[in-house]
Amino acid sequence: MPEPIIRIDNIVKRYGPLTVLDGLSMDVMPGEKLALIGPSGSGKTTILRILMTLETISGGHIEVDGEQLYHMPGNGSLVEADERHLRKMRAKIGMVFQHFNLFPHKTVLDNVTLAPILTKGVARPAAEKRAMELLDMVGMADKARHVPAQLSGGQKQRAAIARALALSPRIMLFDEVTSALDPELVEEVLNVMKKLADETDMTMLLVTHEMGFAHDFADRILFFDRGKIVEEGKPDEIFRNPRQERTQTFLRKIIAAGHRV
Protein backbone atom coordinates (compact mmCIF):
# COMPACT_ATOMS: atom_id res chain seq x y z
CA MET A 1 0.00 0.00 0.00
CA PRO A 2 1.31 3.50 -0.79
CA GLU A 3 1.74 6.01 2.00
CA PRO A 4 -0.96 8.68 2.38
CA ILE A 5 -0.18 11.89 0.53
CA ILE A 6 -1.98 13.81 3.30
CA ARG A 7 -1.89 12.65 6.90
CA ILE A 8 -3.78 14.75 9.43
CA ASP A 9 -3.05 13.70 13.00
CA ASN A 10 -5.13 14.94 15.91
CA ILE A 11 -5.30 18.55 14.75
CA VAL A 12 -7.08 21.25 16.69
CA LYS A 13 -8.16 24.63 15.37
CA ARG A 14 -9.46 27.34 17.69
CA TYR A 15 -10.58 30.88 17.08
CA GLY A 16 -10.38 32.35 20.56
CA PRO A 17 -12.85 30.39 22.69
CA LEU A 18 -14.42 28.68 19.65
CA THR A 19 -13.05 25.24 18.75
CA VAL A 20 -13.72 24.54 15.06
CA LEU A 21 -11.71 21.32 14.71
CA ASP A 22 -11.27 19.12 17.75
CA GLY A 23 -8.72 16.31 17.51
CA LEU A 24 -9.35 15.61 13.82
CA SER A 25 -7.41 12.77 12.16
CA MET A 26 -7.72 11.61 8.55
CA ASP A 27 -5.59 10.21 5.73
CA VAL A 28 -5.87 10.91 2.00
CA MET A 29 -4.24 8.51 -0.45
CA PRO A 30 -2.34 9.59 -3.59
CA GLY A 31 -4.73 10.21 -6.47
CA GLU A 32 -7.80 9.94 -4.26
CA LYS A 33 -10.82 12.12 -5.01
CA LEU A 34 -12.37 13.08 -1.69
CA ALA A 35 -15.60 15.03 -1.08
CA LEU A 36 -16.18 16.77 2.24
CA ILE A 37 -19.86 17.37 2.98
CA GLY A 38 -21.82 18.57 5.97
CA PRO A 39 -23.65 21.61 7.37
CA SER A 40 -22.18 25.10 7.21
CA GLY A 41 -19.75 25.72 10.05
CA SER A 42 -18.78 22.06 10.41
CA GLY A 43 -15.10 22.72 9.66
CA LYS A 44 -14.86 21.58 6.01
CA THR A 45 -13.47 24.80 4.55
CA THR A 46 -11.20 25.26 7.56
CA ILE A 47 -9.45 21.99 6.65
CA LEU A 48 -8.74 23.25 3.12
CA ARG A 49 -7.49 26.60 4.40
CA ILE A 50 -5.20 24.85 6.88
CA LEU A 51 -3.77 22.63 4.12
CA MET A 52 -3.15 25.75 2.02
CA THR A 53 -1.48 27.41 5.08
CA LEU A 54 -4.03 30.23 4.96
CA GLU A 55 -4.84 29.29 8.57
CA THR A 56 -2.52 27.92 11.22
CA ILE A 57 -3.32 25.03 13.55
CA SER A 58 -3.69 25.18 17.32
CA GLY A 59 -2.40 21.63 17.86
CA GLY A 60 -1.54 18.36 16.15
CA HIS A 61 0.52 17.55 13.05
CA ILE A 62 -0.05 17.42 9.29
CA GLU A 63 2.12 15.62 6.75
CA VAL A 64 1.90 16.42 3.04
CA ASP A 65 3.76 14.21 0.59
CA GLY A 66 5.91 12.74 3.37
CA GLU A 67 6.91 16.08 4.93
CA GLN A 68 5.58 17.95 7.92
CA LEU A 69 3.49 20.95 6.86
CA TYR A 70 3.64 23.19 9.93
CA HIS A 71 6.84 21.75 11.43
CA MET A 72 10.38 21.04 10.23
CA PRO A 73 13.45 19.33 11.63
CA GLY A 74 15.56 21.46 13.94
CA ASN A 75 17.83 20.86 16.92
CA GLY A 76 17.18 17.14 16.83
CA SER A 77 13.40 17.47 17.01
CA LEU A 78 10.50 19.17 15.21
CA VAL A 79 10.28 22.95 15.38
CA GLU A 80 7.74 25.38 13.98
CA ALA A 81 8.06 25.78 10.21
CA ASP A 82 9.58 28.98 8.88
CA GLU A 83 8.29 30.90 5.86
CA ARG A 84 10.74 29.23 3.48
CA HIS A 85 9.49 25.77 4.47
CA LEU A 86 5.86 26.88 4.14
CA ARG A 87 6.52 28.27 0.64
CA LYS A 88 8.08 24.97 -0.40
CA MET A 89 5.08 23.03 0.92
CA ARG A 90 2.56 25.39 -0.71
CA ALA A 91 4.05 24.56 -4.10
CA LYS A 92 2.62 21.05 -3.77
CA ILE A 93 -0.95 22.32 -3.36
CA GLY A 94 -3.34 24.34 -5.53
CA MET A 95 -6.63 25.82 -4.39
CA VAL A 96 -9.69 27.13 -6.21
CA PHE A 97 -11.79 29.51 -4.16
CA GLN A 98 -15.50 30.23 -3.99
CA HIS A 99 -15.08 33.82 -5.24
CA PHE A 100 -12.42 33.25 -7.96
CA ASN A 101 -9.79 35.69 -6.50
CA LEU A 102 -8.57 36.67 -9.96
CA PHE A 103 -6.55 39.88 -10.33
CA PRO A 104 -9.17 42.21 -11.83
CA HIS A 105 -6.85 44.40 -13.95
CA LYS A 106 -4.83 41.56 -15.47
CA THR A 107 -5.86 39.47 -18.44
CA VAL A 108 -6.82 35.83 -18.02
CA LEU A 109 -3.48 34.86 -19.55
CA ASP A 110 -1.57 37.07 -17.08
CA ASN A 111 -3.56 35.64 -14.17
CA VAL A 112 -2.49 32.12 -15.17
CA THR A 113 1.17 32.92 -15.90
CA LEU A 114 1.93 35.19 -12.94
CA ALA A 115 2.64 32.54 -10.28
CA PRO A 116 4.91 30.30 -12.41
CA ILE A 117 6.95 33.34 -13.49
CA LEU A 118 7.25 34.84 -10.00
CA THR A 119 7.52 31.75 -7.80
CA LYS A 120 9.24 29.23 -10.07
CA GLY A 121 11.23 31.53 -12.34
CA VAL A 122 9.60 30.13 -15.49
CA ALA A 123 10.42 32.21 -18.58
CA ARG A 124 7.42 34.12 -19.92
CA PRO A 125 7.23 32.31 -23.31
CA ALA A 126 7.18 28.90 -21.59
CA ALA A 127 4.69 30.11 -18.97
CA GLU A 128 2.38 31.48 -21.68
CA LYS A 129 2.62 28.28 -23.73
CA ARG A 130 1.65 26.20 -20.70
CA ALA A 131 -1.10 28.68 -19.75
CA MET A 132 -2.66 28.44 -23.20
CA GLU A 133 -2.64 24.63 -22.96
CA LEU A 134 -4.45 24.84 -19.61
CA LEU A 135 -6.90 27.46 -20.82
CA ASP A 136 -7.68 25.26 -23.81
CA MET A 137 -8.28 22.33 -21.44
CA VAL A 138 -10.86 24.33 -19.46
CA GLY A 139 -12.45 25.79 -22.60
CA MET A 140 -11.08 29.31 -22.07
CA ALA A 141 -8.37 29.73 -24.74
CA ASP A 142 -10.52 32.23 -26.66
CA LYS A 143 -10.78 34.43 -23.53
CA ALA A 144 -7.03 34.62 -22.83
CA ARG A 145 -6.82 38.36 -23.56
CA HIS A 146 -9.97 39.27 -21.65
CA VAL A 147 -9.98 40.77 -18.16
CA PRO A 148 -12.21 39.22 -15.46
CA ALA A 149 -14.89 41.95 -15.79
CA GLN A 150 -15.54 40.68 -19.33
CA LEU A 151 -16.23 37.13 -18.15
CA SER A 152 -19.24 35.31 -16.75
CA GLY A 153 -18.98 33.74 -13.31
CA GLY A 154 -18.48 30.30 -14.82
CA GLN A 155 -15.72 31.59 -17.07
CA LYS A 156 -13.99 33.27 -14.12
CA GLN A 157 -14.06 30.01 -12.18
CA ARG A 158 -12.67 28.03 -15.11
CA ALA A 159 -9.87 30.59 -15.42
CA ALA A 160 -9.22 30.19 -11.69
CA ILE A 161 -8.93 26.41 -12.15
CA ALA A 162 -6.39 26.92 -14.95
CA ARG A 163 -4.45 29.30 -12.71
CA ALA A 164 -4.30 26.75 -9.89
CA LEU A 165 -3.12 24.07 -12.33
CA ALA A 166 -0.32 26.28 -13.68
CA LEU A 167 1.97 25.43 -10.76
CA SER A 168 1.52 21.67 -11.41
CA PRO A 169 0.35 20.87 -7.88
CA ARG A 170 0.16 17.29 -6.63
CA ILE A 171 -2.96 18.16 -4.63
CA MET A 172 -5.93 20.33 -5.66
CA LEU A 173 -8.40 21.83 -3.21
CA PHE A 174 -11.84 23.05 -4.33
CA ASP A 175 -13.79 25.19 -1.86
CA GLU A 176 -17.48 25.52 -2.77
CA VAL A 177 -16.41 26.56 -6.25
CA THR A 178 -19.96 26.69 -7.65
CA SER A 179 -21.82 28.30 -4.76
CA ALA A 180 -21.29 31.88 -6.04
CA LEU A 181 -22.48 31.01 -9.57
CA ASP A 182 -25.85 31.40 -11.20
CA PRO A 183 -27.47 27.95 -11.49
CA GLU A 184 -27.12 27.79 -15.28
CA LEU A 185 -23.33 28.32 -14.99
CA VAL A 186 -22.73 25.57 -12.44
CA GLU A 187 -22.62 22.68 -14.90
CA GLU A 188 -19.81 24.13 -17.04
CA VAL A 189 -17.52 24.34 -14.00
CA LEU A 190 -18.49 20.90 -12.69
CA ASN A 191 -17.76 19.43 -16.14
CA VAL A 192 -14.21 20.81 -16.02
CA MET A 193 -13.68 19.39 -12.53
CA LYS A 194 -15.05 15.98 -13.56
CA LYS A 195 -12.68 15.99 -16.55
CA LEU A 196 -9.76 16.71 -14.20
CA ALA A 197 -10.85 13.91 -11.89
CA ASP A 198 -11.19 11.42 -14.74
CA GLU A 199 -8.06 12.34 -16.70
CA THR A 200 -5.40 13.15 -14.07
CA ASP A 201 -3.85 11.37 -11.11
CA MET A 202 -3.97 14.49 -8.94
CA THR A 203 -5.24 14.11 -5.42
CA MET A 204 -8.37 16.25 -5.14
CA LEU A 205 -10.33 17.45 -2.10
CA LEU A 206 -13.73 18.99 -2.72
CA VAL A 207 -15.94 20.89 -0.30
CA THR A 208 -19.41 21.15 -1.82
CA HIS A 209 -23.15 21.30 -1.29
CA GLU A 210 -23.68 19.78 -4.76
CA MET A 211 -24.48 16.29 -3.54
CA GLY A 212 -25.14 14.80 -6.95
CA PHE A 213 -21.75 15.97 -8.16
CA ALA A 214 -20.05 14.74 -4.97
CA HIS A 215 -21.56 11.30 -5.64
CA ASP A 216 -20.26 11.21 -9.22
CA PHE A 217 -16.86 12.80 -8.48
CA ALA A 218 -15.61 11.19 -5.28
CA ASP A 219 -13.94 7.91 -4.42
CA ARG A 220 -14.83 8.57 -0.79
CA ILE A 221 -17.21 10.88 1.07
CA LEU A 222 -16.53 12.36 4.53
CA PHE A 223 -19.53 13.76 6.40
CA PHE A 224 -18.55 16.44 8.91
CA ASP A 225 -20.45 17.91 11.81
CA ARG A 226 -19.08 20.19 14.53
CA GLY A 227 -15.46 19.72 13.55
CA LYS A 228 -15.54 15.93 13.53
CA ILE A 229 -15.95 13.19 10.93
CA VAL A 230 -19.30 11.62 11.74
CA GLU A 231 -19.32 9.11 8.89
CA GLU A 232 -17.21 8.15 5.88
CA GLY A 233 -17.52 5.70 3.05
CA LYS A 234 -17.99 5.23 -0.68
CA PRO A 235 -20.57 7.54 -2.28
CA ASP A 236 -23.26 4.87 -2.59
CA GLU A 237 -22.80 3.87 1.06
CA ILE A 238 -23.15 7.43 2.32
CA PHE A 239 -25.95 8.59 0.03
CA ARG A 240 -28.01 5.40 -0.25
CA ASN A 241 -27.53 3.80 3.14
CA PRO A 242 -26.04 6.20 5.73
CA ARG A 243 -25.53 4.54 9.10
CA GLN A 244 -25.43 7.56 11.40
CA GLU A 245 -28.63 9.37 12.34
CA ARG A 246 -26.91 12.76 11.95
CA THR A 247 -25.98 11.91 8.34
CA GLN A 248 -29.52 10.70 7.63
CA THR A 249 -31.01 13.95 8.97
CA PHE A 250 -28.63 16.10 6.91
CA LEU A 251 -29.36 14.23 3.68
CA ARG A 252 -33.13 14.35 4.28
CA LYS A 253 -32.91 18.14 4.51
CA ILE A 254 -30.73 18.33 1.39
CA ILE A 255 -33.25 16.25 -0.58
CA ALA A 256 -36.17 18.29 0.77
CA ALA A 257 -34.42 21.43 -0.48
CA GLY A 258 -34.47 19.97 -3.99
CA HIS A 259 -30.88 18.82 -4.36
CA ARG A 260 -30.08 15.68 -6.31
CA VAL A 261 -28.30 12.98 -4.30
Protein architecture, described:
The chain is an alpha/beta fold and about 260 residues long. It has a domain at about 100-170. It is built from nine helices and twelve strands. It has helices at about 45-50, 85-90, 110-120, 125-135, 155-165, 185-200, 210-215, 235-240, 245-255, and strands at about 5-15, 20-30, 35, 60-65, 65-70, 70-75, 75-80, 95, 170-175, 205, 220-225, 230-235. It has a six-stranded mixed sheet, with helices on both faces. A four-stranded antiparallel sheet has the order 2-1-4-5, with helices on one face. The protein has a two-stranded antiparallel ribbon with strand order 6-7. Helix 3 crosses helix 4 (about 125-135), helix 4 packs across helix 5 (about 155-165) and helix 5 runs parallel beside helix 6. The two termini are about 30 Å apart.
Quantity of strands, as a count = 12
Query: What strand order characterises the main sheet?
Result: 8-9-10-3-11-12
Shape: globular
How many helical elements?
9
Instruction: Please give the share of residues in helix.
Output: 25-40%
How confident is the prediction overall: mean pLDDT? Answer: 92
CA radius of gyration is 19 Å
Taking the alpha carbons of the first and last residues, their distance comes to 31 Å
Keywords:
globular, 261 residues, four-stranded antiparallel beta sheet
Give a nutshell description of this structure:
The protein has helices at 44-51, 83-90, 108-120, 124-137, 153-165, 183-199, 211-217, 235-240, 245-256, and strands at residues 6-15, 18-28, 33-37, 59-64, 67-68, 71-74, 77-80, 93-96, 171-175, 203-207, 220-225, 228-233. With 261 residues, the protein is an alpha/beta fold. The strands form three sheets. The protein has a six-stranded mixed β-sheet, with helices on both faces. A four-stranded antiparallel β-sheet has the order 2-1-4-5, covered by helices on one side. It has a two-stranded antiparallel ribbon with strand order 6-7.
